[in-house]
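User: quick one, sequence for these C-alpha cells?
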C-alpha cells in the first residue's frame, strides 16, 4: 500500500494533513461454524489491510470518500443515519456506536482505501469498522481498549450493515499478532496467542470467485438445526446452553432418535470444536503436518456432513489433496463459495498456482484468483498528524 499516495489523495480533497490508521483482514485457520455455537475459532490477521486517513474538523460535519468506489458522502455527527452507499455504513455505524455509548466526537474527514481483495471472505468490512473505531478514538483523545473497539465494530455491522456476524472478524482485526494465530473462546471471549511457525510453508488462498445463492438460507437453516439439537438435549440436561456443552454421546441419546439430519449437523459442530482445540495443541508443539490433516478433516465435515461446501470448493481441495507439498486445505468461511485456505511448501507455490488456475478455469469457466498471505499485526497507527481544519 502506497501511504504517500493515500496522504496526497486525502490532502487534495480535504486540504489538510491526515492521521493514518490501518486494520487488517483475517483468515480462519480452523473452527468453522463454531462461533454461533459458543465454540472455539482460530483466526489470524493477515498482511492485507484497510487504511483510513482522517482529520478532525472544527464543526460537526462528517465528510467521507472511498477510493474504491470513487464516491463521497456527507452528514453530521448529530444526524448519523444509514446511507444508500453501502461502504459508508460501515464507517457511520461505528460513529453511531460512539454516540450511543456517550462519547463525544467531533466532525471529521475520512478517506478509505486498502489492499484486501473485495468479496474474498477476508473481512474487509470488519477491517474498515475497526480502523474507523481506532481512528475516531485517536483523534478525539478517547481511551478505548481493544475489546471495546471490537464490540463496537461488531455492533456497527449488526445495526448499520444488517449482518448479524459473530465477533471473530472484528476481534482478529484488532487483536492480530504477526506470526501467531489466536485461539478465541466465543463463549467468554477469552483468548490465547498460538505460535504459527510455518517453517518453509506459505498460506495460500484460492478464491473460487463464486457465491451461490444458497448461502444465506442454508446458514439460517444450520443455525436453527443447531438450536433445535441443543433444545432436545437441554430438555434432559437443563444446564446445557449451546453445542459447546454437548457431547456426541448426548447427541446419540437425545437428538438422533428425533431427527437424523439435525443429529449429523450438530455432530459436525461438536467434532469441529474438538478439532479446533486439538489444532491449538498441535500448533504449540510446532506440528503443522498434524494441523494440515485436521484442516482436511474439517473440509470433509463441512462438505459431507454440514453440507455448506460447493462443487468449486470441493474441486480445489481435491486438486491439492494428494500433493505431498500441500499439508492441508479446506474451504474457509460460511460456504457455497469464497476461498480455500492451503498450507503449501514455499518452493512449490508458483507451480501450484499455475496448475490449479488452469484446471479450475477449464472445469468451471471461471477465473481463479490466488493470494499468498502472511500473518500480520492488528489495528495500528501508521502516521500521526493531528491537525484541525
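Assistant:
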Amino acid at each position: 500500500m502506497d501511504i504517500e499516495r493515500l496522504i496526497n489523495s486525502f490532502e487534495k480533497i480535504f486540504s489538510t494533513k491526515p492521521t493514518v490508521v490501518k486494520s487488517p483482514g483475517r483468515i480462519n485457520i480452523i473452527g468453522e461454524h463454531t462461533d454461533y455455537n459458543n465454540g472455539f475459532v482460530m483466526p489470524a490477521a493477515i498482511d492485507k489491510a484497510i487504511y483510513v486517513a482522517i482529520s478532525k474538523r472544527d464543526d460537526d460535519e462528517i465528510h467521507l470518500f472511498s477510493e474504491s468506489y470513487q464516491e463521497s458522502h456527507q452528514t453530521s455527527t448529530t444526524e448519523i443515519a444509514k446511507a444508500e452507499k453501502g461502504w459508508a455504513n460501515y464507517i457511520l455505524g461505528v460513529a453511531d456506536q460512539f454516540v450511543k455509548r456517550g462519547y463525544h466526537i467531533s466532525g471529521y474527514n475520512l478517506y478509505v482505501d486498502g489492499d484486501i481483495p473485495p468479496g474474498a471472505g477476508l473481512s474487509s468490512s470488519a477491517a474498515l469498522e475497526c480502523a474507523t473505531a481506532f481512528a475516531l478514538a485517536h483523534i478525539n483523545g478517547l481511551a478505548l481498549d481493544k475489546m471495546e473497539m471490537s464490540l463496537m465494530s461488531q455492533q456497527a455491522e449488526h445495526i448499520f450493515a444488517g449482518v448479524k456476524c459473530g465477533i471473530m472478524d472484528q476481534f482478529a482485526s484488532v487483536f492480530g499478532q504477526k506470526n501467531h494465530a489466536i485461539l478465541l473462546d466465543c463463549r467468554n471471549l477469552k483468548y490465547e496467542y498460538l505460535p504459527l511457525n510455518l517453517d518453509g510453508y506459505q498460506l495460500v488462498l484460492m478464491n473460487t470467485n463464486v457465491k451461490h445463492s444458497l448461502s444465506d438460507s442454508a446458514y439460517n437453516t444450520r443455525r436453527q438445526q443447531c438450536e433445535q439439537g441443543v433444545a432436545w438435549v437441554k430438555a434432559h440436561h437443563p444446564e446445557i446452553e449451546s453445542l459447546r456443552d454437548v457431547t456426541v454421546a448426548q447427541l446419540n441419546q437425545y437428538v438422533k432418535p428425533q431427527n437424523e439430519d439435525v443429529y449429523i449437523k450438530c455432530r459436525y459442530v461438536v467434532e469441529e470444536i474438538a478439532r479446533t482445540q486439538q489444532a491449538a495443541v498441535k500448533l504449540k508443539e510446532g506440528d503443522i503436518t498434524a494441523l494440515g490433516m485436521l484442516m482436511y478433516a474439517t473440509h470433509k465435515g463441512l462438505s459431507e456432513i454440514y453440507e455448506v461446501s460447493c462443487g468449486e470448493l470441493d474441486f480445489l481441495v481435491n486438486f491439492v489433496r494428494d500433493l505431498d507439498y500441500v499439508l492441508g486445505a479446506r474451504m474457509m468461511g460460511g460456504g457455497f463459495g469464497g476461498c480455500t485456505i492451503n498450507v503449501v511448501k514455499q518452493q512449490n507455490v508458483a507451480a501450484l498456482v499455475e496448475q490449479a488456475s488452469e484446471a479450475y478455469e477449464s472445469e468451471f469457466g471461471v477465473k481463479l484468483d490466488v493470494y499468498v498471505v502472511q500473518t500480520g499485526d492488528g489495528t495500528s497507527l501508521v502516521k500521526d498528524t493531528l491537525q484541525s481544519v
